[in-house]
Amino acid sequence: MEKRSARRRPWWWRLLVWLLASSGISLLARRRGALSRSGVPAAIVTGTVTAGAGGWELGLSLIFFFISSSLLSRFRQQQKVHIAAEKSNKGSARDLLQVAANGGVATWCALRYGLRQRSVTSAVQAERASCDPWLAAFGGALATATADTWATELGVLTRRPPRLITSGRPVSPGISGAVSWPGTLAAAAGALAIGIVLQGLLTLARLLSGGASEPDRSRPLPLAIIAWFSGLAGSLIDSLLGATLQTIYRCPRCGQETEQRRHQGCGSLTQRVRGWPGVNNDVVNFLATLSGSLIAAALSRCSAPYRGRD
Questions:
Q1: 218 near 307, Cβ under 8 Å?
Q2: How confident is the model at residue 213 (pLDDT cuts 50, 70, 90)?
Q3: Which of 130, 159, 217, 273 is most buried (CB neighbours < 10 A)?
């Protein structure tokens, strides 16, 4: 009989281990202000399901996203807090809806990938599973969330006014739908970073399971490239949705555009100037990560014909 890898431990054991790990990380993030009170249980569920079902490789990729995003949020934090107070209707601490919007699609993809992997019994099959569309979709969703977060945290600090992606009109930093070269480069870097981390961890997992001893008979499109392209595309879709569908208000007193129904800057009730009612930043983030996951899954399937046959 073939030996089972460490990945094949009982599902309840993996869930228990990652429940404890996710709880510890989430509570620490709460103490440091990265999560709100409602965001803690959402982060625990996201981490537990992603790593418990999809594997430690996917769990560590999710942790990389969270840590890198948290560190970038602290970069020139005072300046960004002022911008957020004027434009955004939420603070820097992620709440339940923000966690779900950014990580919900990736969590679902990790769960579906893990369920399919339960039938894997050999290192050869495990290596072929690296081309699984659900795995690619996970990478695309997480890369989109990373790209969007990096672009927001760094692009908002640009000295030149960003421009609305639909019209090119100069707008204030922090407004939804705005793009800039620094933000776009940050998005590309974030998507590529998560792709490299995910593929590196999957490669390490195959080495630990003995997959390196098997001949490599496949030449699929590298997962890092899929994540990079789909993540960057997803972040641009996020900007496009932010400029078209997301509800944006204008303060009648000072004329500033904001996501707030009551402008915190001057306390005035704002007026809707564009977007669909009920479509806020959380909805846009969810649709963007869903788009990134679908693009990645399509790229994975398109590269399948290039794989070698036995």
A1: yes
A2: very low
A3: 130
How far is residue 167's CA from residue 303's CA, in Å, rounded to a whole number? 35
AA identity, residue 148:
D
The pTM assigned to this predicted structure is 0.87
Q: Sorting pLDDT into bands at 50, 70 and 90, what band is 154?
A: confident
Question: Average pLDDT over the chain, rounded to whole?
Answer: 83
3-state secondary structure the chain: CCCCCHHHCCHHHHHHHHHHHHHHHHHHHHHCCCECCCHHHHHHHHHHHHHHHHCHHHHHHHHHHHHHHHHHHCCCHHHHHHHHHHHCCCCCCECHHHHHHHHHHHHHHHHHHHHHHCCCCCHHHHHHHHHCHHHHHHHHHHHHHHHHHHHHHHHCCCCCCCEECCCCCECCCCCCCEECHHHHHHHHHHHHHHHHHHHHHHHHHHHHCCHHHCCCCCCCCCHHHHHHHHHHHHHHHHHHHHHHCCCEEECCCCCCEECCCECCCCCCECEEEECCCCCCHHHHHHHHHHHHHHHHHHHHHHHHHHCCCC
User: Counting every residue, how long is the chain?
Assistant: 310
pLDDT in tens, 21-54: 999 999 999 998 889 999 999 999 999 999 999 9
Q: Residue 294: what residue type?
A: L
155-201 residue pLDDT tens:
888 788 889 999 898 887 778 888 999 999 999 999 999 999 999 99
Structure tokens at 147: 């790209």
pLDDT at position 82 is 63
Domain ranges of the chain: 6-306
Q: Which residues lie below 8 Å from residue 185, measured CB to CB, with a gap of 6+?
A: none
Residue pair 122/306 in contact by the 8 Å Cβ criterion? no
